[in-house]
Amino acid sequence: MNKKVKSLYFSATDTTKKVITKIAETLSENIDNKRTINNINFTLPEVRNKPISFTEDDVVIVGVPVYAGRVPNVLLKYLNNIKGNGAIAVAVVVYGNRNYDDALIELKDILQSRDFNVIAGGAFIGEHSFSKKLAQNRPDEKDMKIIKGFTDKIYVKLSTENNYDSVVVNGNKPYRQYYKPINKYGVPVDIRKVVPKTNSNCNECKLCVSVCPMGSITNEDVSIISGICIKCGACIKKCPNNAKYYDDEDYLNHKVELEEEFDYRREPEMFIGE
Ligand SMILES: Cc1cc2nc3c(=O)[nH]c(=O)nc-3n(C[C@H](O)[C@H](O)[C@H](O)COP(=O)(O)O)c2cc1C
Could you tell me the pTM of the whole model? Predict the structure, then answer.
């Protein structure tokens, strides 16, 4: 099989990256492809400024995290400019153990509209961006075995079929509205304006500046957030000194509620057709 395996993903706290890398590496090994995998990580803003296109020879493993039950809306412009040119794609979403709602069907639809042939899809679980205990350390070893099994099936499909039907995945159409958290009185709240604070542990190492997917943390003074904050968790979870935190009451209430309500293990769902 003369296919080139490529990966394309956004991953602020690296859970999507782990899932996508495992699929891409396993598939490449199965194909016995000695070529290095071309990984396009579009987490940082400068990468999203570059146009991107694929060819019919490519198998592209595409992954995004689920934000509010959907494909993160800050990524739509980038995704809607990719040129698939008939490449095969595997659509993957990674969610924090609540639900992936309509994110997978939305990602599949976007890829199809960009001229990709989407032959498989999967929804996997990753540690929640807001929490260090909700879906803690996932994807874990059990997930990795499931991901390998899924990838082996993709390989069989690729090596035995020439014409692929578009895969059917779970999700509603029209898509549900973006999921909204509620406060302790049950009233929906808007946490979009919430930004992280900086405590005295900060030694100005600037790591947070370099990992912010929105380029919103000011280099001269990292306590100043100059652009939008998507609450992706990168500056909080990657800070070596635990210097970033949220103190917004609605945000913290939502985080605790998620930790309590979804304190059970959800398992990956995969779609690969007949
Ligand atoms: C703004 C925002 C909204 C999120 N919404 C959901 C959601 O609707 N359902 C869910 O289960 N997880 C949700 N998550 C959690 C992420 O999908 C999950 O932690 C994912 O593994 C993060 O991927 P990453 O490590 O590649 O950044 C949300 C995270 C953020 C930052």
Answer: 0.98
Six-digit token string for 204: 């100005």
Ligand 1 center to 139 CA (angstroms): 13
Same domain, 170 and 222: no
Task: Answer for the pair 83, 27: CB distance below 8 angstroms, yes or no.
Answer: no
My answer on whether 25 and 141 are in the same domain is: yes
Residues 86 and 143 in one domain: yes
Asked if residue 213 has its Cβ within 6 Å of ligand 1, the reply is no
Task: Note whether residue 189 is domain-resident.
Answer: no
Q: For 2-12, how does the pLDDT look when each residue is reduced to its tens digit (9 = 90+)? A: 899 999 999 99
- Pocket probe mutation, ligand 1, options 15, 66, 195, max atoms within 8 Å of Cβ: 66
Is the ipTM higher than 0.90? The answer is: yes
The Cα–Cα gap between 122 and 89 comes to 12
| CATH assignment of the domain containing 223 | 3.30.70.20
